[in-house]
Design brief:
The complex is a heterodimer.
Chain A (H helix, E strand, L loop, with lengths): L13 H5 L2 H19 L6 H11 L6 H9 L7 H17 L4 H25 L5 H20 L4 E2 L7 H4 L1 E2 L2 E2 H19 L1 H11 L1 H6 L4 H27 L1 E2 L7 H11 L11 H20 L4 H26 L1 H13 L1
Antiparallel strand pairs in A: 1-4, 2-3
Chain B lengths: L1 H35 L8 E5 L6 H16 L3 E5 L6 H13 L4 E4 L8 H9 L3 E5 L10 E4 L3 H16 L3 E7 L5 H14 L7 E8 L4 H14 L3 E6 L2 H13 L7 E4 L3 H9 L5 E4 L2 H16 L10 E3 L5 E3 L1 E2 L4 E4 L4 E4 L3 H4 L4
Parallel strand pairs in B: 1-2, 1-3, 3-4, 4-5, 5-14, 6-7, 6-8, 8-9
Antiparallel strand pairs in B: 10-15, 11-12, 13-14
Helix pairs in contact in B: 2-10, 5-6, 7-8
Classes of the chains: A mainly alpha, B alpha/beta.
């Protein structure tokens, strides 16, 4: 059994302040900007950077709830399929004559419902692991999407709908504005509210938090429903960018999102990491991809670079954790030797 | 001890990443050098975006494109997302727009899904054409098509008739039941079969092997079992034709059942040599890419605008004319190319 010493009065020291993983990500961002503007003359200008931001931000909305889910030691790999299904429902309803505004509301509802169903299964059958449950719903939701639309595409949305994916608010992409607003909201939710603190508590020790009166099930349901809702928002932006949709959209988005969360310093064993880290990681991966795309490196090479980046970041975060609890490790090693 | 292990592991990773970065910077600089060589008049850059990486047909297509661009002394940018998705292609096109390329040639993963981003490219003065797999008429200036679907359909029936002496049962082994190009070709095959000279030929079944080797093999075996008098199998897909030929060869049915259709020479050489498939067809992906490259160049050099009736010289391939289609315009590469015992040797190593 591991014991965790939680001191509720953390003294502020400059050393601790600068040792935060978020500074590492900011440094990484600066390095990426420097390298990118050196290797490509097209990187450092306003249009390029805003255009790139519009391209990679769509899936970033799912990062918010995914951070919470992973802090709670769970995972949701059905978000890509949820996005595809909500997008298909929206397009099908609109093509059937439903007004676009209602179709968008339906899209959000379907997303939230998909997420709620994941949460419900996990709460109802506690012995099931989140990987298996969301793997099943990942296949299920994608299957329903294919059933509705078969292998066709649907679209012909009204002109104003393209504003989501392509519009600007006074020179700043609309998607970026919304992302920043939501990011501030989620940072406050996770870092400053009771719900946020309870999420950390559940991640650190689910049993103890349950026994101490934390409504674990309620929080789980809420967080998974949020994941579905955010997947639906992703669906709206993605569909708007493409102007049409088909059942295989948002393929593998779950992996991209999990990669961003992992790079953001959220520990996979739960209870650790900050929302801000994941938000920064979105931009690190996004601009890294864009910069490498500008010098036209092959797609496989891109995967290698991101893979290495992830390995390094996970090792470093892990290293920090082990250093903080050296005694625990030592004891474990001793125990191993004895047995 | 443990800590030192971790530190050393970490250092190895950091070194790897530094090495990777170093390489990238190196290659980046060299390509930058290329573009800035001319100073004021930079080399014209033409980009091609294929469906996904690791597709042999796509590699040959891009090779042809690169050849054409090199001939006109431009710089070719070859890109493809690692998954065959619209999202991946949008991202790449955005990157190409930022790089201010002169033209973008796209083999699309979706007919409509790229419209907004391609329209944006066109608005920024970039010439946009599609090749192999088209985008809708609003989002392209011209489409470069391999061959007329009518010609592809009809020629396969004509060939089969010649192989089996104009009478007997025939079957089609296609890709998936929703594959739009295959379905169109099969429609034309059926129309060709309505002609009186094929009265004694009977199309008994259209089977779907889904472009999977296993399923195509079992579908072929089922066809042979259900129709013992079957004379020919037409497989208008590269996976299907190879699978059908393998089954016929393994069962020792050479001479009794013939196979023809559309196949890759490298995969079919064995069966053309052993007579299972006397001859078959395919367009040359290298030529297709070459024609696309030349078309892109003609658009950038303003020899054509992509309107119906425009004509231009496509280097080694000769002269081409832009023709009208249902929505938009296209350039046709020409009739499918015949591969037989006489020429298979020179092609089997090419693609």
């Amino acid at each position: 059994m591991s014991t965790r010493i939680v001191s509720n009065i953390q003294k502020f020291t400059w050393k601790r302040f600068f040792l935060q993983w978020e500074w590492m990500l900011i440094a990484l961002l600066v390095i990426i900007f420097t390298i990118n503007s050196n290797i490509s003359p097209y990187f450092l200008n306003y249009t390029s950077i805003t255009d790139a931001t519009m391209t990679f931000l769509d899936k970033a909305f799912i990062v918010f709830p995914m951070v919470m889910i992973m802090i709670m030691r769970e995972i949701d790999i059905s978000v890509g399929s949820t996005a595809a299904l909500s997008s298909i429902v929206m397009a099908t309803l609109y093509n059937a004559g439903v007004p676009m505004v209602i179709a968008i509301v339906a899209c959000l509802l379907v997303g939230a419902l998909c997420g709620f169903f994941n949460g419900y299964l996990l709460v109802k059958y506690r012995e099931l692991s989140a990987v298996i449950v969301t793997l099943s719903t990942m296949i299920l939701y994608r299957g329903i999407a294919y059933m509705i639309l078969e292998d066709r595409s649907a679209g012909d949305f009204p002109d104003w709908f393209s504003y989501f994916g392509w519009g600007y608010v006074g020179g700043i992409p609309f998607i970026l504005c919304l992302f920043v607003v939501l990011a501030i909201g989620f940072v406050l939710l996770l870092q400053k509210t009771t719900i946020g603190r309870r999420i950390y508590a559940v991640g650190s020790n689910p049993k103890a938090s349950r026994f101490s009166g934390v409504k674990v099930d309620k929080i789980k349901l809420l967080v998974f429903t949020l994941a579905g809702l955010m997947a639906a928002i992703t669906a709206i932006f993605l569909t708007s960018r493409m102007g049409s949709t088909r059942p295989n959209v948002a393929n593998m988005y779950e992996l991209d999102v999990i990669a961003m969360v992992a790079l953001g310093g959220i520990s996979t064993v739960g209870g650790k990491g900050k929302m801000l880290g994941a938000v920064l990681a979105v931009f690190v991966i996004g601009y890294l991809q864009f910069g490498l795309g500008l010098i036209n490196i092959p797609a496989q090479m891109l995967l290698i670079v991101i893979g290495i980046l992830l390995i390094v970041s996970v090792t470093v975060t892990n290293f920090r954790v082990t250093r903080k609890a050296p005694q625990r490790k030592a004891k474990k090693n001793q125990a191993k030797k004895v047995s | 001890m443990k800590r030192w292990k971790l530190v050393s592991l970490l250092m190895v990773f950091v070194l790897t990443i530094l090495a990777a970065c170093g390489q990238e910077t190196g290659s980046g600089e060299s390509s930058e050098g290329n573009t800035s060589d001319g100073g004021g008049e930079a080399v014209t850059r033409h980009a091609i975006v294929f469906k996904s990486t690791g597709n042999p047909f796509g590699e040959k297509l891009m090779e042809g494109f690169e050849n054409a661009i090199e001939e006109v002394e431009g710089e070719a940018i070859l890109r493809a997302p690692e998954q065959p998705t619209v999202e991946g292609q949008i991202q790449i096109i955005e990157e190409l727009i930022s790089q201010q390329v002169a033209s973008i040639t796209i083999a699309a993963n979706d007919y409509d899904g790229l419209e907004p981003v391609l329209k944006k490219a066109i608005n920024k003065g970039i010439k946009v054409i599609s090749v192999d797999s088209a985008v809708n008429g609003d989002s392209r200036m011209v489409h470069v098509n391999q061959a007329d679907p009518e010609a592809i359909g009809r020629i396969q029936i004509q060939a089969t008739s010649e192989m089996i002496g104009g009478k007997g049962q025939i079957a089609v082994l296609s890709a998936t039941s929703q594959a739009s190009n295959q379905n169109l070709w099969i429609e034309w095959m059926k129309k060709e079969l309505e002609k009186p000279e094929y009265d004694k030929m009977e199309l008994v079944e259209v089977a779907y092997g889904d472009d999977l080797r296993d399923k195509s093999v079992s579908e072929t075996e089922a066809l042979l079992q259900s129709y013992p008098d079957l004379k020919a199998i037409i497989a208008p897909t590269t996976v299907g034709i190879a699978a059908a030929s393998k089954v016929i060869t393994d069962k020792g049915l050479q001479g009794e059942v013939v196979v023809t259709g559309l196949g890759l020479p490298s995969e079919m050489a064995e069966y053309i040599e052993n007579g299972v498939s006397p001859w078959m067809y395919l367009w040359n992906p290298i030529d297709l890419g070459y024609l696309a490259g030349r078309t892109a160049d003609a658009l950038v050099e303003e020899q054509i605008t992509g309107a119906e009736g425009d004509t231009f010289e496509a280097g080694d391939l000769g002269s081409y004319e832009v023709v009208k289609t249902e929505d938009g315009t296209e350039v046709l590469l020409g009739d499918p190319f015949e591969f037989n015992k006489d020429n298979i040797d020179e092609w089997k190593d090419v693609y």
